[in-house]
Specification:
globular, binds zinc ion, three-stranded antiparallel beta sheet, 10 helices, alpha+beta, 349 residues, five-stranded antiparallel beta sheet
Amino acid sequence: MFGCEHCGNLKFVPFRCKSRFCPSCGTKYAIDRTTAMSFKLVNCIHRHCVFTIDENLRIFFYEDRSLLNCLFSAVRYTILRLFHNMNNSQQFTPGFICVLHTFGRDLKWNPHIHCLISEGGIGNSGLWRHVKHFSYIFLRNAFRTSLLNFLEDKIGTSFKSIKAKCYREHKHGFYVYAKPALSQPKDVLKYIGRYLGRPVIATSRIDNYDGDIVTFHYNRHEDNALIYETVPVLDFMEMLIQHIPEKHFKMIRYYGIYARHRASDSKLIPAVPLNKRSFLLSCNKWRLSIGLSFGYDPLKCSCGNMMVLLELFHDHKRVPLEDLFRKAIEKYRTSHPNSCSHLAPFMLH
Ligand SMILES: [Zn+2]
Ligand SMILES: [Zn+2]
């Protein structure tokens, strides 16, 4: 509970509900994940590739969500092979981040992986090699082959006929395509936020709800045409909740140099300099991120004064601020036994 000391206005600000599906908390979650991701990147151009699968395979992942791990394994295997093949003794290792999306723009079940790959890798001798050319022929074929093999391992011999059909219908592999390369590291944060951290549907895409029927829109992937769809509300909810991941399932995974801690890798220059990180993290805090998103200070009262924190409530009960303060001071004292004299003026009586 915040209040204005000047005119007595009160303002209640709720805690997070922590649902990734909530339009507010989910966005906050995405912002935090995006920041964490950008801190891992090295300072080089990254390529954004999308790995898609045969339509007939989608149902397998829908019925057994644990198979989604095979998608990650196949992408990881494919990219590491692409780099290792360049030089067998150096075994260049790139850094890459994979994000699983289970939804298409139309909200239908459509699992695919977005992958952000460094255009280069570090060799066994510690040397960095720039890699400008990615063979998409290799990526498509290797991704198809490794995914089908991983799936067969998991599903068993009943998968053999589907596998054969996939080979017949996708002679050149599964569709893997590249989005435009990122030129400047400063664009990285914006970019991965937009493409990789986004929720299933932004509230701005929901146009109407009358209590029974929901209308939403999207730009069709094939031709970018604007499509409006109107569905009963229960169908709409079903479309959304099918994309809630299993508990503890990791939708974002780091690989290559982004997954390991090697002394030789520490020479690489990070895309986001260390001295800018605390500033970027502070922008994600509630007050500033409301300001950055909506252009106003949520603690500014209509009279122009700044509101101050008056009370804290949890589970509908008042949490005594004095107790919290006392605990914080005690904690500080035990961790800094010799340096708390300057806190004396703040001590409560
Ligand atoms: Zn006021
Ligand atoms: Zn929420």
